[in-house]
Specification:
307 residues, 11 helices, homodimer
Chain lengths: 307, 307
C-alpha cells in the first residue's frame, strides 16, 4: 500500500533544558516520512522547500523509499523556519521565530504518480491547503488522517470544520481537543469531534500516552516512562508516521489493528525524543523497533480474571 | 490475611463544578476501609473520631468486616473536618476550611487484637504518628505502604525521611513525587525515592493513571477515561484500599500481583469518583468490580508480535 504525506520540510532551531541546536532539519512531513518509511514503501511526500534544504537529506529520505515528485523546490526562497524554547515540563514551549518563507506560497499538487494511494496523512497546515489536497485526489483513500493546531481553530475555524467532514481521523493533543470542542473531559471532547465528521479520534497526551476513540470503543496507549526527554520536537509527527505507516503496511484499519498501530507510533515517538531533531530516527533498526514495542507490551500487560 | 489501616475518619464538605455537599462522611481510613473490605476481612481500623461521627456509618463499616477496636472516640470533641472546592480540571482544589478537632490529639495505639497483621496501610498523617504505629507493632508486617503529602515535606521533612526508611512502598501523586525529590522526571523521582528507603513506589497521576516502580521494573496502569468525574475526593485513598486489600486477599506481593492490585485499585477509584464521598463505594457489588476490571483489560490490551 502506498501512503501520501503532506506537510512541511523545514528547519528548526531548538532550545531545551538539556541543550541547544543551530538550524537543523525538521518539519512535519520529514518526521512522518522517517517514521513511516520503516513500515511502508513508497512514502509519497508532498511539501515545499527552498534552495537551502540539504541535498543529502533528500538523498537519505529517497534511500528509505520516500518519493519526492510532490516536493516543490523554490529556487529563490528559503525553507520554513521555526525556533522555539521548551520549558522544564517539555509539554509547553515558547515560539521564538516563525519565518514562513516558501510556506507562504504552498499550493500543493498531487502528482499523477501518487494517484491511487490508499493512505493519506495530512500534516498540520492551513485547513484550506488540506482540503485542496483531498480534492486533488482522483481516488478516495481508504484512510485519511489529519493533524491540526490551535492556530487554525482561532484563525480558520470555518475552513477547519469543512475539512473535518472529509477525513476519517483527527489527531490532536489534549489542549487542542479541549479548545476545538469547549469540553474539558476528553471523553466528551472526542464524542463531539466524532459528530463533526471523523469516525476516529486520537488524543495525544504527551508523557501520559494517547487515547483512541471510535464509536463507543476506547483504547489507552501509554507513553514509555522516560528518564530524560531530550527534545520533544517532532514527536507528534513521528507518532503519526509510525501509526499510519504501520496501518499502510498491514492494510488493515480494524480497531484492533489501530491499537497495534498506536503502540508502534508511540514506540517511534519514544525514539524521536532521545536526541535532537530526527537524528535518532535515522539510527534505529527494525530490531530496535521490535524491542521497543516489546517494552510497551511489558509496560502495560497484566493478567487478572475475577477479583 | 489481616490488614491494619491507619488514617482519618472525618467529615468533608465538597464543592465541585457539578454540585455541592453539606458535611458528609469522609477521611482516608474510611475510604481505605470501604475499598479494602471488598477483598479482605478483617480490616483493622486505627483512627480517632469525635462524638459526631454517625453510629450508622460505624455499623455499616462493621457489617463489612471492619474492626473498630483501634478507633478512639473522644466524647467532647468533634471529628476532623475539611472543606474544599475543586477547579474545573478536578486535579487542583482550594481548601476552604480545615478544623483539626480530635485529630490534634491523635496518638494511635495498636490494640492487642490487631497484632500480627500482615499488611499495614499508613494513611496520610504526620510522619511521627506513622512512625509510632510502626513501632507499636510486635510483628513486622509483610508489606507496609505509606501515603504522605506536600504539607509534611514542608513542615516535617526530617521525620518523613525517617519513616521512609521503615516502609516498603510509598504512594504519592506526581506533584508530591517531584516535590519530595526535586526531580521533574517521574522516572528519576522514583529512583531517588527508592534510595530513600521504599523498595516500591507508586506515583498516581489522576486521570492519567498510575506508575509502579520496583528496581528496574515499571508498570503503567491507565485510568479509565470517564466522561464526568463527579467528585474526586477520596479517590487516592480508595485506590490505596483496593490495592492493599487485593494484595492482602491474595497474600502475594510479587511484582506481577502488584500489577493486578493496581488495576483493582484503579477500578475501585473509578467507582469512587462517580458520586459524592463514599456513596458509590457502598452500592457496588463483586459483579460490578469484576466488570470494571474487565473494562480496564479491554482498555489497554493489544496483541502485536514483530513490526
Amino acid at each position: 500500500m502506498s501512503l501520501i504525506t503532506v506537510g512541511t520540510m523545514a528547519f528548526d532551531a531548538i532550545e531545551t533544558p538539556f541543550g541547544k541546536t543551530d538550524k537543523i532539519v525538521g518539519g512535519s512531513a520529514t518526521y512522518v516520512a522517517y517514521a513511516a518509511s520503516n513500515f511502508v514503501k513508497p512514502v509519497q511526500q508532498i511539501s515545499i522547500i527552498g534552495y537551502d534544504f540539504p541535498e543529502e537529506e533528500m538523498d537519505e529520505l529517497r534511500s528509505r523509499g520516500v518519493q519526492m515528485d510532490g516536493v516543490e523546490i523554490v529556487k529563490d526562497k528559503r525553507c520554513f523556519f521555526w525556533s522555539g524554547r521548551y520549558h522544564e515540563d517539555m509539554n509547553s514551549r515558547d515560539t521564538l521565530v516563525t519565518d514562513l518563507n516558501v510556506l507562504a506560497d504552498f499550493d500543493p499538487k498531487v502528482p499523477d504518480s501518487y494517484q491511487g494511494a490508499e493512505f493519506l496523512m495530512l500534516g498540520n497546515l492551513a485547513p484550506k491547503i488540506q482540503m485542496n489536497v483531498i480534492q486533488e485526489l482522483k481516488h478516495r483513500p481508504k484512510l485519511i488522517v489529519m493533524d491540526t493546531m490551535n492556530f487554525w481553530m482561532e484563525s480558520a475555524m470555518s475552513e477547519l470544520r469543512i475539512v473535518l467532514k472529509y477525513v476519517d481521523m483527527l489527531l490532536v493533543n489534549d489542549a487542542e481537543a479541549r479548545q476545538l470542542t469547549g469540553h474539558f473531559s476528553l471523553v466528551k471532547a472526542a464524542k463531539v469531534i466524532m459528530e463533526m465528521g471523523p469516525r476516529y479520534v486520537i488524543i495525544k497526551k504527551g508523557e501520559h500516552g494517547a487515547l483512541l476513540f471510535h464509536d463507543d470503543e476506547v483504547f489507552y496507549a501509554p507513553a514509555l516512562p522516560i528518564e530524560e526527554v531530550f527534545d520533544p520536537t517532532g514527536a507528534g509527527d513521528t507518532f503519526a508516521g509510525g501509526f499510519i505507516g504501520y496501518l499502510a503496511k498491514t492494510n488493515d484499519i480494524s480497531f484492533d489493528n489501530m491499537k497495534r498501530a498506536i503502540i508502534v507510533g508511540s514506540a517511534m515517538a519514544s525514539f524521536c525524543v532521545e536526541k535532537f531533531g530526527p537524528t535518532r530516527l535515522k539510527e534505529i533498526t527494525k530490531e530496535d523497533i521490535d524491542a521497543r514495542v516489546q517494552q510497551f507490551k511489558d509496560l502495560v500487560s497484566f493478567d487478572i480474571e475475577l477479583v
